Recover the amino acids of this structure.
């Protein structure tokens, strides 16, 4: 099984090559979903979902999400408008907000398990 961060790199390459806004949005949702599913795997209190969009929807309902993360997730999850525009003007940027949040959560979790953090 491929490392989740490598999967995100591959999706970022796909997104960078795409000139199609729909494909770009799909890649961004995948990027966010990959990160969210990694977080779900490591947290017994968060049930893992099967698809990236379902994971994104479950993630939005999480308590204590920072506003920027919650807003980015909501923009990515939202349906297109009747004229096929997305609420996200930068879907990959929104996905990366989520990825960075997940990275910090996983690092914090690892530090707490191993006692690597400084005690004040």
């Amino acid at each position: 099984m491929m490392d989740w961060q490598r999967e995100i790199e591959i999706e970022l390459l796909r997104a960078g090559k795409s000139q199609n806004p729909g494909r770009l949005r799909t890649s961004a949702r995948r990027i966010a979903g990959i990160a969210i599913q990694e977080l779900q795997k490591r947290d017994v209190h968060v049930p893992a979902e099967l698809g990236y969009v379902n994971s994104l929807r479950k993630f939005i309902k999480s308590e204590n999400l920072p506003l920027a993360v919650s807003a980015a997730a909501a923009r990515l999850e939202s349906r297109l408008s009747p004229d096929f525009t997305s609420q996200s003007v930068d879907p990959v940027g929104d996905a990366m907000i989520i990825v960075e949040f997940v990275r910090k959560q996983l690092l914090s979790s690892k530090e707490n398990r191993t006692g690597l953090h400084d005690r004040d």
In short: The chain is about 65% helix and 0% strand. Residues 8 and 31 are 5 Å apart (CA to CA).
